[in-house]
């Protein structure tokens, strides 16, 4: 996607692609639940999750380093783009390959970390190539994103992989796949995705293999900046997925499957936040480079207003139909409804505080973000272990909720200190008060046993009508910014 497009066009395209990814993830969980049951689904997701987290570790934060430095390096010398692309893949590829081989060689003892029964080691072994190929795929995606090109995210991460998984899911009902066979097929999909991302990025930007940077900025400085971001990126991803592995290790495979289904539904709400972060990251970085705090505050205000308005519709809709959504996966999954509701509460704080995490990272305050994400991850993992004994899988959802609240409150008050951002301005107060009023009204309707569908339709219409002028302003702001 061209960097010359308006923010609105970028947002629509990226949101559509991420929406496909979100739907694809939900359908994948549904197909696995229907085809293999909660137990088979749990086996797949525990092995897949372990490999996916290892892949995020193997990226060493270099991807975010690309976001930060490629615009600067390219402005100094066009050849630096090829050099940064080559160096990034050499560093990440070498580390990822070593980690992948280590996991394959020691698959049995590694399986003991995520399965009660180490005989399930094959699920770790079959997923391990994802570590190498997804690490390098992400580097190519981040190189494109640093140039304002969203096509890497759009085509690879949000279309090829999720659509490929959907095709495999459909085939599972036609061709008899074991869970291991399905996992091996998904691993192959990541190999194909890497080949496409690598070749298309090289072709589209005319990149050549080069390791010479023509800049005062050296590889050492890039690594010093990037390594702390490894902790951030790994902690952020682990925050979402770690409870799956904890439940597999101390609970049961079935409970891990229930958590994954609830998590995929709850995290799909963050599509809006990830979309705005992806599109606005280059603008935030540019504003900081120009020492323009006014521009940063304006960007934050517009993004936060849009997120608060639109995410409420998704959050409220999922909360109202939480029981039906979980039952959609199967009767066993109804036990995960409370877990889903707890996770939705955490997503409110995540979406409503806006791109505060990106503000810290792109303004060079990655040490603060390291503290925030590590604190949240430790709280999440600790509470999951503690609350599981009394609340079961719902305890994992509550742990996720509380850790999200902690992280985003820390981020917000840090950004407020450094940039003077203000979250609760006049328009934000209007959104929050109206939303609380509508939630209270729905509770009254529900208490009086009014038809749920009619209640939702009426309240949604009221919400949109009362915000008609705000919608026009929000869209106008997005169209006017480039």
Q: Quick one: overall form? A: globular
Oligomer kind:
single chain
Helix content: over 70%
Pick out the low-confidence regions: none
Tell me the β content: under 5%
Q: Can you give a write-up of this model?
A:
- With 482 residues, the chain is mainly α.
- Helices cover 83% and strands 0% of the residues.
- It contains 20 helices and no strands.
- Helix 11 packs antiparallel against helix 12.
- The mean pLDDT is 86.
Outline the fold blueprint.
Elements: H1 7-58, H2 62-76, H3 79-105, H4 107-111, H5 121-127, H6 129-146, H7 151-172, H8 179-204, H9 219-250, H10 253-267, H11 271-289, H12 293-320, H13 322-329, H14 337-352, H15 356-362, H16 366-391, H17 393-419, H18 426-447, H19 452-466, H20 468-480
List key phrases describing it.
single chain; mainly alpha; globular
Summarize the structure.
The chain has 482 residues and is mostly helical.
């Amino acid at each position: 996607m061209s960097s010359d497009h308006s923010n609105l066009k970028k947002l629509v395209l990226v949101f559509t692609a991420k929406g496909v990814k979100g739907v694809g993830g939900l359908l994948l969980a549904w197909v696995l639940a229907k085809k293999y049951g909660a137990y088979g689904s749990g086996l797949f997701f525990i092995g897949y999750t372990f490999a996916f987290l290892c892949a995020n570790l193997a990226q060493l934060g270099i991807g975010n380093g690309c976001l930060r430095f490629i615009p600067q390096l390219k402005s100094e010398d066009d050849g630096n783009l090829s050099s940064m692309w080559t160096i990034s893949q050499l560093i990440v590829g070498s580390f990822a390959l070593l980690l992948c081989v280590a996991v394959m060689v020691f698959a049995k003892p590694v399986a003991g970390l995520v399965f009660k029964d180490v005989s399930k080691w094959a699920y770790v072994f079959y997923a391990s190539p994802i570590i190498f190929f997804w690490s390098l795929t992400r580097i190519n995606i981040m190189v494109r994103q640093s140039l304002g090109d969203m096509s890497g995210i759009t085509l690879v991460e949000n279309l090829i992989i999720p659509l490929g998984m959907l095709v495999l899911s459909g085939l599972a009902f036609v061709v008899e796949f074991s869970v291991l066979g399905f996992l091996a097929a998904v691993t192959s999909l990541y190999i194909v995705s890497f080949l496409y991302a690598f070749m298309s990025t090289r072709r589209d930007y005319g990149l050549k293999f080069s390791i010479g940077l023509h800049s005062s900025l050296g590889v050492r400085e890039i690594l010093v900046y990037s390594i702390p971001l490894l902790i951030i990126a790994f902690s952020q991803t682990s925050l979402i997925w770690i409870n799956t592995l904890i439940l597999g290790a101390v609970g049961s495979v079935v409970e891990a499957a229930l958590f994954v289904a609830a998590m995929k539904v709850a995290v799909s709400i963050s599509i809006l936040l990830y979309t705005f972060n992806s599109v606005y990251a280059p603008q935030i970085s540019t504003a900081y480079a120009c020492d323009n705090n006014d521009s940063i505050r304006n960007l934050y205000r517009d993004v936060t207003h849009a997120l608060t308005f639109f995410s409420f519709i998704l959050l409220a809709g999922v909360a109202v139909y939480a029981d039906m959504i979980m039952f959609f996966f199967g009767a066993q999954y109804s036990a995960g409804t409370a877990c889903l509701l707890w996770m939705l509460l955490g997503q409110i704080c995540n979406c409503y505080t806006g791109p505060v995490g990106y503000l810290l990272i792109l303004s060079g305050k990655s040490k603060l973000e390291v503290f925030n994400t590590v604190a949240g991850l430790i709280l999440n993992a600790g509470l999951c272990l503690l609350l599981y004994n009394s609340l079961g899988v719902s305890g994992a959802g509550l742990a996720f909720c509380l850790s999200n609240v902690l992280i985003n409150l820390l981020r917000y008050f840090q950004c407020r200190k450094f940039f003077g951002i203000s979250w609760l301005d006049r328009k934000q107060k209007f959104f929050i008060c109206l939303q609380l009023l509508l939630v209270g009204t729905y509770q009254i309707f529900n208490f009086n046993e009014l038809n749920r569908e009619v209640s939702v339709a009426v309240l949604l219409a009221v919400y949109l009508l009362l915000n008609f002028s705000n919608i026009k302003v929000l869209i106008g702001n997005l169209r006017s910014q480039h």
